[in-house]
UniProtKB/TrEMBL annotation:
The keyword Signal belongs to this UniProt entry's keyword annotation: yes
UniProt source species: Malaciobacter marinus
InterPro entries: Flag_Lring (IPR000527)
GO BP terms, alphabetized: bacterial-type flagellum-dependent cell motility
Segment forming the signal sequence: 1-22
Protein name: Flagellar L-ring protein
Main location: other
Keyword Signal among UniProt keywords: yes
Amino acid sequence: MKSNCKNIVLISFVLIFFSACAATEEKLDFTKPKMQIPKPTKIVEKKKGSLYTRKGPSLFADKKDLQIGDIIQVRIDESLTSDTNNKRELTRTDETNLGGGLLTPMAGNVLGGTVDKYANKFNRVAGVNFNTQSNSTNEGEVKSSLDESFSTTVSVIIEETYQNGNYFIKGNKQLLIDGQRQELIITGVIRPYDITPENSVLSSQVANLKILYKKDGAEKDALQTPWGTKLLRKIWPF
């Protein structure tokens, strides 16, 4: 009975292990996105004898009056460059020397010479002497160099309009080619004055810009560190 239970546990473990190692097919979700609710229509204010008001549009800039659910393009052109060189060296030296006798000779006495003789003899046998030395050196040097660039164009949807007229945008782009799944998600806040006549805006003009770009598939598996190696790095003390 015990041997059967052991076999069942062993077979279950093997099945779980191989199922975890099996490749999963990448899929895309084609469900309909949530509906974008347009903002309410503004009430037209009556102008009091002036052609220009502070609340009106600028006379020197082309402002795009877009609604929630409208689509614009974001031209992403981002680069990241970093060059770091850190060097650290720590050295510590400790030395301790403790020594002394248990008995102190007497002075200023007739028997001083005799007591001194026996006291020195006793101290040589039962005296205390403790000496320690320690040296510690720690050196470290880290060098890192990073140079990356990312350029693409993605269409985004206006999801919210703020009181000052700015727009909150969000876009999602997914590709599935030969089992390689790529996904790009972007969010941020833009000004209507930065939108070009071609209905596009640069990524450098997007405030609170957040870009997520990830890959899934055979390419990611080839570049990803195995879980066993990650575990060893966490518990390895040296």
